[in-house]
Predict the 3D structure of the following.
Amino acid sequence: MFEKMREPRTKSWITGLVALVLVVGAVGYFVEGRRALPLPPVLRITTDPTSKAQHLEVPLLHYMKGSRLKDQVALDFVGAVHLGEKSYYGELNKRFTAYDAVLFELVSDGMNLPTIGEEGSDSILGTVQRAFSDLLGLSFQLDEVNYRAKNFIHADLSPEELSDAMAVRGESLPQLLMKLIKLSTDPEITKALEERGYNESSLAGVNPLLILLRGPTAEDRVKMRRFMAQGLIGSDAVLKVLEGEKGFSLITDRNSEVMAVLNRETALGKRKLAIFYGVGHLPDLHNRLTEQGYRLAKVEWLNAWNM
């Protein structure tokens, strides 16, 4: 009789132990998830150990805000590079469908948006970017991303607003170009770029004249992609100088706008959002987000270029 009475107690003890382990594990996971991660690089280059192929990777950062489950906001920063593999943009389009709102960058009035499969009139910058996409054998962002999706929300300045912001800061496009030319010969900038792997020797064997006459070969494109990728990795050094202590309209004022739209949309009750912006905006945006109580909980990397 006593043996029969002990059996339920033994099972109860085991059940209780299992429950305790699960609870402790869940609490540990919850606590771990609440620890803010440090900001990663805005871009990185990885090398496949077997094939030696290289990849330019873009971060997808997962932020969380709020302690109570019903009030929590999940916000992803989806890093953008304006030229990329078609598969990269295809992956983004799939992921974008899961959000309540995707806040995107595009200096426009937010009305005349690009349409996939339709050629629109490009700005001077757009024409240059499209030419580079053809040269490198990559796709152009405006041709691949579905900006007309129902959950896409314009979160950028209009051309007039950007012009006004530049005027307030005493900036102009000719002044910016002159500053960039000056920075290109600055020894400190050159050193910073070289430390990040930017080296013209990676273009050895690429003949510009032949490229103009017959177009780039597959080998030419690999070399040019690697050279351009190294330049993108090092561009943060240039942006830091341009921003300075007072900020820079192309970064600072546009980030102010996306934060205003983010606050508006969360006030309307949206709890799962994405900011789809160029990676150069990330350092300043990260500071703004952490100041508002967002914490970086997880980092993913997406392959943007094969090299």
Summary: The first helix runs from residue 2 to 33.
